[in-house]
Input
Amino acid sequence: MSYREHGMWEILDVLKRIHRGEKRRRIEAVTGRSRKAIGRYVEVATELGWVAGIHEPDEQLASEVVAKLRPGPKEPVASSEKVLAPFKEQIEQWLEPHGGYKSGLKLTKIHGLLKRRNVDVSYWSLRRFAQKHLDFGHKDSTVRMADVRPGEVAEIDFGRLGFIHDDETGRKRALHALIVTLVFSRHQYVHVTHSQKLDDVVEGLEAAWEFFGGVTARVVIDNLKAAVVKAERYEPVFQRTFNEYADHRGFVIDAAVARHPTGKDYASYCTSFASCA
Output
């Protein structure tokens, strides 16, 4: 049986999509990971204490999933429980509200306090322990989103508007339009710029989020050179800085499928209208 390396970034991308309620069939089509593999990622992450829709997945969680999936001997779960068991009462006290506050310490803070006491366990092992023994983090189940809902997907693309005279240089300069389209409502925001660099993309998106009054859960980009390092249907590689911006703003990046009838985004169809404006 062949083994396919499970990369941390690929697993993190899958978990983020699951967290935001994307259907596994779509995740399979976008990432190239089989539904069986996706299910395994979710299963392992859940065993580590992760709850989709409640806990935002991070690099540490994805790294632990990678370690669990990698062939070879695994460290038994019981070992982390044995390490944490003597601190159960202390952890419970830290979690309880105190000093007039409505809630206790955050689990990330508790993890740091334990490290100072030379308790060497991962954050997700601590979370799993707290959930199992201290009833930590129990909330009502979340409702998954439909395929396309208001505020879920925005699509962006550049269109060329032509040339404009620059008074400072005395020359003509190209003028571009970054078009941000909300898929559900078809509402649009057009950001005019002289270039298509990453700074222009981020500046245009920031202006669009302010205009729309919020950030969508997913952004589909039409293979913008500033944001896409390698444009592939199943495993596109996005520019690291743009990836970090997406994480900061809390949206997932998708690349439009090139030369595919269902892959052409709505924004692409609107560039001609912007060019004629």
The two ends are 58 Å apart (CA to CA). Residues 77-134 form one domain.
